[in-house]
């Protein structure tokens, strides 16, 4: 795509999105979208301190027709995610917060959950394996059974340094089809 600004996370999410779309055999003209949270801590001016306790995120949505998502390649999908994240600037965050103060509304997660979408939560930046409740280092981290609508993907820092764990709530048929998806399997298997 002529840039070195696409993150490995954006590439990974684009890979997952393409595989799910291919595996579900969407019609070419059907819109598909990926909704995710964008961390606003470093984008605020001044930046929020590391010890800030609370959510500092905005939602972002990338939308494409299935044929564009699948035919234009992995780089194009990741680049669209990258552009959407980059558009969430300090000014955008400030405008959102000022608007929200005037008209507070709960986060409309339910609007993200439809059959042709994926929705991401969590972040590989959180040191979930560094938390010790007195039993030692966790061997696995999972989010539990609640809040698992179809299409929800939850990301965690992986157990191995530099890795990412992804939980995905999809139908068994979708996972079975993904196992036949050459692009996806080449990327996720050793």
Automatic annotation (TrEMBL):
It comes from the Eukaryota. Gene3D superfamilies: Chloramphenicol acetyltransferase-like domain (3.30.559.10). Keywords: Transferase. One of its GO terms (molecular function) is transferase activity. InterPro entries: CAT-like_dom_sf, Sec_Metabolite_Acyltrans. It holds the Pfam family Transferase. Transmembrane segments: none annotated. PANTHER family: FAMILY REGULATORY PROTEIN, PUTATIVE (AFU_ORTHOLOGUE AFUA_3G14730)-RELATED (PTHR31896), PROTEIN ENHANCED PSEUDOMONAS SUSCEPTIBILITY 1 (PTHR31896:SF43). This is Acetyltransferase. It comes from Vitis vinifera (Grape).
